[in-house]
Amino acid sequence: MHRPSHNFEQNEPNPMHGGGNKSKDRNGGSWWWPGGTPSEPRPPTLQEYQRLEETVFRLREDLKWYKTQNKEKDVELEQKDIQLKEKDVELEDLKKTLCMYDACAEADIIQKVDTINTTTSKFLRDTARSWVKSASKVAEELVVVPDDDLRHLKEVIGAKLFEALLVARLERTTSAYNILQFAWQASIVAVVTKVLGSFSAGLAASPEGSAIDKTLQVISVEVMKQEVQPAYGRWRFLTYRHSRGIVPEEQAIEIYVNDAMKTCRTAGQVLLKNRCPAPEAFATVFEPKLKDIIRHAFQLLTDIQESMMTTNFEPYVPPSGIPFDPKNMDVNPQDKADYAGDVVVCVTGVGLLYSRKNGRERTNEVPMKDVFKKPKVLTEANLGDIVA
Predict the structure, then answer these.
(1) Helix pair angle (380-387, 173-197), 10° resolution
(2) Residue 150: which of 265, 12, 319, 305 has the closest Cα?
(3) Separation CA 18–CA 115 (nearest Å)
(4) What gap in Å lies between CA 189 and CA 211, rounded to an integer?
């Protein structure tokens, strides 16, 4: 908006700006002369009146123009205000949609965790019961299990369950197959946790890729600390998608399956001794189910890394020996959760933690974590009941 300009004649003074001499009358008013010193006061001439009227007219026209411009700007501001309110409504709708999307995705994640846990427990319960019953009818012979395999099994399932596995007696069928089932569950959950705890499970499967995966995890934490949640979620999505193709998924799944199967067979050898199936027969039973479970774990990790832009998930593994906390952990369906002073022996069902940054600020810290899905654990008191 530009203010109109008016050209005054250069040889004529502008009455509004005191271009000539002036003197005051008796009432304080002023009379103007085109130039020089007046010999005596006189009223303005007709020409001067006309010039004043033209100036007033032009100023009034300017005022009208400015008022018109102000009205137009007011209308424009009102329109902008309406548009802003519409954008606010649109933003709220997007937020609600995003929350609904998150809620749907979170429900899907819970379903996938339940699928992994249910598939694992049902398969192992049926297999342990069948094998223990069959083994109890066969004469026992000692078998040699490599010390490294025994040490690894003890680290995975915990010292208490490992000791129970060593002293279990096959003629006490129920106790024996429960102990074997939990040892197998802890072994498989440990591998599933390895998948879910990686940045890219395909990379983490091999020794060479594992170093890259650990570096990505370190970078991921730093990006999470420095960026707002949506920006971090987008970075994680893109980085994970690019890293997935480095190692073929089926090749990585095979590595995890072999890892779980080796630990499970070691547990079987400790309890069943010479009656544990040979490696080929063992693989015939275990490999198809383990592939199914690990594929579910891979898909769950993909959902977490690619779909959950506003939430972060990671596996929750309560360490052996910590107090049992019913608010954040579950026991297995047949176990009791009300033993005073009970402690965790091992984890037998997958659990998850979640976190998210709220607002737009960069807090330069990792957000607080809460339990999203309680892990199932075997406690010392319940293990004592099984052994007894």
Answers:
(1) 150
(2) 265
(3) 94
(4) 22
Structure tokens, 242: 């690019």
Condensed to tens digits (0 to 9), the pLDDT of residues 172-211 reads: 889 999 999 999 999 999 999 999 999 999 999 988 889 9
- Band the pLDDT of 227: cuts 50, 70, 90: confident
What pTM value is reported for the model? 0.73
Q: How far is it between the farthest Cα atoms of the chain?
A: 147
72 and 62 in contact (C-beta within 8 Å)?
no
Q: Is 376 left (phi over 0), alpha (psi -120 to 50) or beta?
A: beta
Least Cα distance to 346 among 176, 100, 179 occurs for 179
Could you write out the DSSP letters of every residue in 329-360? -EE-TTS-S--TT-BEEEEEE--EEEE---SS
Q: Do 198 and 164 form a contact (C-beta atoms < 8 A)? A: no
- CA separation for the pair 158, 279 (Å, rounded): 24
pLDDT of residue 334: 83
The predicted structure's pLDDT at residue 279? 93
- State in Å, rounded, how far the first CA of the chain is from the last one: 93
| pLDDT per residue as tens digits for the range 108-149 | 889 999 999 999 999 999 999 999 988 877 767 777 889 999
Cβ contacts of 365 within 8 Å, gap of 6 or more:
225
Contact 41, 29 (CB under 8 A): no
| Residue 119 one-letter amino acid | T
Closest CA to 294 of 319, 261, 262, 333: 261
- Pairing between β-strand 352-355 and β-strand 330-331 as defined by DSSP bridges: unpaired
